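Hi R.,

As promised on Friday, here is the backbone we talked about, encoded as structure tokens. Could you run it through your design pipeline when you get a chance and send me back a sequence?
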């Protein structure tokens, strides 16, 4: 069962592990702890930037909708879920900046 932050408890910084899967078309990104938080980049660098942007928007929506926010899993747990060839990166977002930019 997922571990969640106490309802209404917002953090200033969130860090989650993302899985990157490189193909001929580019790099897909998914966050195992955050189903539905996915993105894509044509290069590794673009995928990293898109991952941060996707996480910013996803976390902002969770906060503003009052949805439960899962605590991040350990890297070991994420790697057990990874398919062969996938790489893990830690993505960090600074929520005060995101909240200000999004207008709340």
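Update: got your reply. Pasting your designed sequence below so it's all in one thread:
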């Amino acid at each position: 069962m997922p571990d969640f932050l106490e309802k209404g408890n917002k953090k200033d910084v969130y860090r989650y592990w993302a899985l990157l899967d490189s193909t001929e078309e580019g790099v897909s990104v998914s966050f195992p702890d955050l189903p539905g938080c996915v993105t894509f980049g044509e290069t590794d660098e673009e995928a990293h930037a898109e991952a941060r942007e996707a996480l910013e928007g996803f976390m902002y929506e969770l906060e503003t909708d009052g949805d439960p926010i899962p605590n991040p899993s350990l890297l070991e747990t994420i790697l057990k879920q990874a398919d062969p060839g996938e790489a893990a990166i830690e993505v960090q977002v600074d929520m005060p900046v995101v909240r200000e930019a999004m207008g709340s």
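One thing I noticed while checking it: The CA atoms of residues 24 and 71 lie 33 Å apart.

Thanks again,
M.
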